[in-house]
Amino acid sequence: MKLLCVVILMFLPIFSRADEVLVAVASNFTLPMQKIMAEFQKETGHKVSASYGSTGKFYTQIVNGAPFEVLLAADEEHPDKLLSSGLAETHSDFIYAIGKLVLWSPKENFIDNQGKVLSGTGFRHLSMASPTLAPYGFAAEQVLKKMELWKKLQDKMIYGENISQAHQFIASGNAELGFVSLSQVKEAKGSLWIVPRENYEALKQKAVLLKVGKDKKAAQQLLKFIRSEKGRHLIQEFGYEVD
Question: Domain spans of the chain?
Fold first, then answer.
């Protein structure tokens, strides 16, 4: 009984200081974030409440007063806008991941290793995230324009609000193939083409501490954990590059 009391007293100071951090997370980063959250909570006792969606939509919500304390964006542009408008803490931003765009289908041997399937007639629908809301959607648009297929494929397009919805359209069979993040399908069955990096602007994903979270230790510690060797290793496990 005495031993139990000693153990409780040892951990009481840690968890009495435990806090909760509200994080807006680009939907392509859902799987690694879930792993990061579990490890972070185990190490610190802090709870992470994460919302997943399109970076563009999160930006609008933050500008309009949403109480997020940390943003893990799918690009650099939106965090930079928040910094310049005073809604994010100066010098708190960093590139936490560099994403990879892939063309994926759950069908085996459906997609070749050069994406030539896009020029054929063997599919009715192509899924991608909205180019105006999601950086991965904008990257997909760049790829199709470079392949001179953007206008030709307009009638076959199905747009998701974010990359998760674009993935759902493919997984459910509403589209035979589509552009998603490598992290979403790294362990999935089917066929894919990892789009060469020179075909689209680098998907540098930036993290930033928002003004709402400037005095929150949990928010600061989460960003520190993401930048740590352990955090970087977890991110790389899902197919991302790290700076």
Answer: 2-98+203-237, 101-194
Q: Do residues 126 and 157 make contact, with C-beta atoms less than 8 angstroms apart?
A: yes
In CATH, the architecture of 101-194 is 3-Layer(aba) Sandwich (3.40)
Q: Are strands 70-72 and 203-209 parallel, antiparallel or unpaired?
A: antiparallel
H or E segment to which residue 78 belongs: helix 77-84
| pTM above threshold 0.85 | yes
Residue 9 has pLDDT above 50, yes or no: no
Question: Assign residue 148 a region: left if phi > 0, alpha if psi is -120 to 50, beta otherwise?
Answer: left
Question: Residue 17: what pLDDT?
Answer: 64
Q: Is it the case that residue 16 has pLDDT exceeding 80?
A: no
CB of 25 closer than 8 Å to CB of 222: no
Q: In which region does residue 118 sit, left (phi positive, over 0), alpha (psi from -120 to 50) or beta (all else)? A: alpha
Looking at domain 2-98+203-237, its CATH architecture is: 3-Layer(aba) Sandwich (3.40)
Query: pLDDT per residue over 127-178, tens digit each?
Result: 999 999 999 999 999 999 999 999 999 999 999 999 999 999 999 999 999 9
